[in-house]
Amino acid sequence: MERFALIRNVTNEETAVVAASIIDYLHERGCLCTVSDEETDVPDSTQCVIVLGGDGTLLRAAQKIFRREIPIIGINMGTIGYLAEVERRNMKDAIDRLISGDFSIEERMMLRGKIIRADQEIYSDVALNDIVLSRSKPLRGLRYVNSVNGKYLNTYAADGIIVATATGSTGYNLSVGGPIVSPEAQILLLTPIAAHSLISRSIVLPGTDQISIEIAEGKMGALEEAVRVSFDGGSPIALNIGDRVTIRRSKWHTRLVKMKNTSFLETLRYKMREA
User: Fold this and answer.
1) What is the C-alpha separation between 57 and 60, in angstroms, rounded?
2) Which of 46, 44, 76, 42 is nearest to 58 (CA)?
3) Which of 84, 115, 236, 271 could connect to 228 by a Cys-Cys bridge, CB 3.0–4.6 Å?
4) Strand, coil or helix: what is 212?
């Protein structure tokens, strides 16, 4: 590889210094590197996107370029960093390996979510980690009516619902008690947030299924903009009672550059020790 684009977490001032160091290092080795942000497109000639930040920055980068499936490598400037696997102290070695081709590519499943209002699609987007529905009004209990492949599954009375990929199983899904799944698995995780029941649990479904979640009235009755939905933690979109969100596997993938030969379980054990 010799043509790179760099995306950094602009809220972390330290990444500006590290970014300049990476660009200089690449130029010294005869490579090209452009800097991209939310307003700047990644050039068509880019062979790899280098992301400086934590997993949140990498998730935003994945959404930015998902249709092009350019390989992404994350240099962790955050805390745990399940996706951004290269630590700052090892970044020059990682860059040398990128240039020489000493790496592998891991394809990660993505989700495609659509918002349906009055039988009309009003919005759609993709997510690498998860699509999250959560209440936007305090002290308002709501019900989420869940169907799979057009057939009724169950109804959660809960503060929200997470639909996650295996990649996203170590994110918000994990923090609310959902299962951890190896990222190679092609599955959908349906996990309630603060369910008002003693028997509500996560449900694991095949990646070929389609989930439909309808916002239903709670005990307090109908409420406009009662729920919001976000894709990989992005800006939330308001939902009304009766709206539906349909979620299925996207035809697109996120391609992550892997430098280490360690297994998922080894990585998990190491990251959990840091948490």
Assistant:
1) 5
2) 76
3) 236
4) strand
Contacts of 180 (CB under 8 A, 6+ apart): 169, 170, 174, 268
Residue type, 133: L
102 strand-pairing partners: none
Residues 6 or more apart in contact with residue 65 via CB below 8 angstroms: 42, 49, 72
29-43, 118-132, 224-238 — most confident range:
118-132
Phi-psi region of 209 (alpha: psi -120 to 50; beta: other; left: phi over 0): beta
Cα separation, 239 vs 117, in Å, equals 9
**Cβ(106)–Cβ(128) below 8 Å:** no
Share of the chain above pLDDT 70, in %: 89
Residues with a known catalytic role: 55
Token pair belonging to 107:
């394809």
pLDDT of residue 221: 54
Task: Give per-residue pLDDT as tens, 178-207.
Answer: 999 999 999 999 999 988 876 788 999 999
42-68 as b/e, with b when 16 or more CB fall inside 10 Å?
beeebebbbbbbbbbbbbbbbbbbbee
User: Are 210 and 183 spatial neighbours (Cβ–Cβ below 8 Å)?
Assistant: no
Q: Locate 253 and state its tokens.
A: 């993938």
Residues 74, 81 contacting (CB under 8 angstroms):
yes
Share of the chain above pLDDT 90, in %: 65
The 3-state DSSP class for residue 172 equals helix
Higher pLDDT, 272 or 89: 89
